[in-house]
Amino acid sequence: MAHVLLLHSVHGLRPAVLAAADRLRAAGHLVTTPDLYEAPAAATVEAGFALLGTIGHGTVLDRARRAVAALPAETVLAGFSMGAGIAGALLAERPRAAALLLMHGTGGGPDSVRPGLPVRLHLADPDEYEPPADVDEWRQAMTAAGAEVVVHRYPGSGHLFTDPDSPDFDAPAAAVAEQRVRTFLAPY
Q: pTM of this prediction?
């Protein structure tokens, strides 16, 4: 059983994030899903970026810090898209994190990696927000710092391919990603 901090995308805390958390809970994990916006979710990416701009990245990061503060040091840090970046940012403050689970975006940097840190990245292929050269550079830096990085790519999918409320949704790719996530979290 893992403790998982699951952070939402730039859209906000949408039903897809809550449903993913429920599926992880059904698999026996303890999942925390904070609302980093403390506001209704945005219907579009553009509206989500506008909301993030209004709230401020620093406030969003502070809310994530508050959410993780009461969780065990060995919590799995996880996030969707923007949430993956926030999860990665928290890693610098949570050196005993059990793992880093990144959906739809990279997160974390080599300066915050402990040797042996399990990292899984699930990305559309291609992904408009994560160019292949940038992902390869990130993966190489994380691996050189000692992380055990595995990148799963989902050809033909759109950026938020696991979100049924997104035009990017790809049911077969989402099912494969979910099974891979369950396998990844099983030992924790």
A: 0.96
